């Protein structure tokens, strides 16, 4: 079974197919050339032989017509030339008079016999006929013997000439053998060259396979560049890109697991410390007991929020088939979102303004797009804070501005605030899970570091895009672009 599998693998391999291609490219043209040469040689040789015999036969026919040889009169000169023609071409000559009687046969077999055949009859009508019997290897000519002194060129008789073509066949056989030897020599040579070329061409692929195998077994994390053929080099580069991408994903996954463990462990640790403190104290005052229980409740709420956000991320990571696409009025959706967030804005003393430039209806998943926009606006409100000194010296009103616009293809949502802003070095990390720009503010506000990751995932699921621009201590602007019509890919 193993041998059969190895044999089948070899048959299916590129190396074997390259060998076959080289051999076929060598043998097929040689075979076609050999067949063509042999066919051409035979046709040419027969044509030349026919022309020679016809020419000699016409000369002899004219001489016979001038003599009385067909009338039964002996003519040694004519008889000698007829025999010479037959011997020269290893053939047979038959002379027939106008009564269809054979008057002379170089084989001395059919003399004084009557011959009536289609060829003879046609030749008495003045036609020269030539026939080549390829199977039996002979040429047959029937030539009229015409009276040259008669203006009408009346036919006195017919001369039948049969000539063997065995020498042509022998030459053809010899050429065929030589051609076959050449064909086999070329085939063997090209088979050898094909094996060498196939091994040479497949060697980079084998090296690439070894590199991939090393990556699979963990010996290395990069496929070595081949520096051979352009195609192999491109495959090597693409593999490195894929490996780097998966390495980033793997590192991100490990970091995510570490962050999740840390984020979930922190509230549990706080609750354990608080519970242990209560258990270690005797006669705990009611006020302290309520304060500790309130802290424990807050930690539980924080844990619950982290878990809910993680569940939202898991849903976002599913395929787009999980989207529940409906046609939705985006203007009304924004009004509802801002209405729900207004109490938070009032508590933070932040003015929230909605500006709609035109009515917009789009195909979106209401739950996911609501979650994305809510996160953006809620972040703009919650992080629109100042330090105490800045608060005292800055009388500027804190605000969040939300605008909606659209064209023929997309609708655009812009969320602006004049809050604390985001440092430039943090802008490329804000969509990472559990990443916090200002950890102290995040802890105080209650952020989990998952909101923007959820927002970005939701927007990307809708085939949209999100961009951010921020200046530290001046404010932040998020620009969202989403297609009006959802196209499933």
TrEMBL record:
<dbReference type="Pfam" id="PF02518">
    <property type="entry name" value="HATPase_c"/>
</dbReference>
<dbReference type="GO" id="GO:0000155">
    <property type="term" value="F:phosphorelay sensor kinase activity"/>
</dbReference>
<dbReference type="InterPro" id="IPR050351">
    <property type="entry name" value="BphY/WalK/GraS-like"/>
</dbReference>
<keyword id="KW-0812">Transmembrane</keyword>
<keyword id="KW-0418">Kinase</keyword>
<feature type="transmembrane region" description="Helical">
    <location>
        <begin position="174"/>
        <end position="199"/>
    </location>
</feature>
<keyword id="KW-0597">Phosphoprotein</keyword>
<dbReference type="InterPro" id="IPR036890">
    <property type="entry name" value="HATPase_C_sf"/>
</dbReference>
<feature type="transmembrane region" description="Helical">
    <location>
        <begin position="20"/>
        <end position="41"/>
    </location>
</feature>
<dbReference type="Pfam" id="PF00512">
    <property type="entry name" value="HisKA"/>
</dbReference>
<dbReference type="GO" id="GO:0016036">
    <property type="term" value="P:cellular response to phosphate starvation"/>
</dbReference>
<feature type="domain" description="Histidine kinase">
    <location>
        <begin position="259"/>
        <end position="486"/>
    </location>
</feature>
<dbReference type="InterPro" id="IPR036097">
    <property type="entry name" value="HisK_dim/P_sf"/>
</dbReference>
<keyword id="KW-1133">Transmembrane helix</keyword>
<protein>
    <recommendedName>
        <fullName>histidine kinase</fullName>
        <ecNumber>2.7.13.3</ecNumber>
    </recommendedName>
</protein>
<dbReference type="InterPro" id="IPR005467">
    <property type="entry name" value="His_kinase_dom"/>
</dbReference>
<dbReference type="GO" id="GO:0005886">
    <property type="term" value="C:plasma membrane"/>
</dbReference>
<dbReference type="InterPro" id="IPR003661">
    <property type="entry name" value="HisK_dim/P_dom"/>
</dbReference>
<keyword id="KW-0808">Transferase</keyword>
<keyword id="KW-0902">Two-component regulatory system</keyword>
<keyword id="KW-0472">Membrane</keyword>
<dbReference type="GO" id="GO:0004721">
    <property type="term" value="F:phosphoprotein phosphatase activity"/>
</dbReference>
<dbReference type="InterPro" id="IPR003594">
    <property type="entry name" value="HATPase_dom"/>
</dbReference>
<dbReference type="InterPro" id="IPR004358">
    <property type="entry name" value="Sig_transdc_His_kin-like_C"/>
</dbReference>
